Amino acid sequence: MAGKVKWVTDIEKSVLINNFEKRGWIQVAENEDWNFYWMSVQTIRNVFSVETGYRLSDDQIVNHFPNHYELTRKDLMVKNIKRYRKELEKEGSPLAEKDENGKYIYLDFVPVTFMLPADYNLFVEEFRKNPSSTWIMKPCGKAQGKGIFLINKLSQIKKWSRDSKTSSFVSQSSKEAYVISLYINNPLLIGGKKFDLRLYVLVSTYRPLRCYMYKLGFCRFCTVKYTPSTSELDNMFVHLTNVAIQKHGHLLIMGLSSFLQCSPSLLPLPSFCRKQRECAVANLR
């Protein structure tokens, strides 16, 4: 881009505006020529809708891919992963190889998942193959652990259906979409607690695929030690690492910060890697 970058945003966040101004960029109105537009999700859908037919010029950048929800919505992500698997199978790709039990060897990074209410019958068929299994249900369009719960009986699904103001899985228009996945009962634990990694990746283009991974990140921990006991299925402090949930955990509020005994809810990625190395060395002794 020649000259000063012209920017516009519909999100009045100081962290954005301060960074733009620090770089000497010039703020303009949305109806003027711009180079960088930091848009809200709704704005980007409106701007790049089929009706507008808007296309970016070579000197314009936005902060979202217009159809990013194909990867960020739980149900659409599962749909696209399943589609990807089928395409690889048709191509005869070695990535689609399966073991003697019919399970993917290289693509087995997502547990068995169905969409509800659409795939209810398929789910029931799979559930009855192993009626002692535990499943986790998540609303497709929510975040921060909202609406998530675990089940191990079909009757719990029926109760959810009644509570959702529908009497049949055939009628789908008024029901919020959920994904239901086979729950991993033996997860990798640290200090006896569940955790996950929050890594940040900037994707600048998909064709060709170009990604930049940020060096720093953080780990999220549960504040209560994990147990597969059915008596703790409703205890989200055991099962979910979402900060919005774990910040209310009694161990975190008490301020207990011993990593192995009462690990904090958040841990910087370098600290996590250091702890992992220490644990690995200790296990070798």
From TrEMBL:
Keyword ATP-binding recorded: yes
GO terms classed as biological process: microtubule cytoskeleton organization
Any Pfam family hit: TTL
InterPro entries: TTL/TTLL_fam (IPR004344)
Compartments where found: Cytoplasm, Cytoskeleton, Cilium basal body
Molecular functions per Gene Ontology: ATP binding; tubulin binding; tubulin-glutamic acid ligase activity
Keyword DNA repair: no
UniProt main location, coarse: cytoplasm
SUPFAM superfamilies: Glutathione synthetase ATP-binding domain-like
PROSITE patterns registered for this protein in UniProt: TTL
A GO cellular component entry from the record: ciliary basal body
Keywords in alphabetical order: ATP-binding, Cell projection, Cilium, Cytoplasm, Cytoskeleton, Ligase, Microtubule, Nucleotide-binding
Family recorded in the similarity comment: Belongs to the tubulin polyglutamylase family.
Record protein name field: Tubulin tyrosine ligase like 1
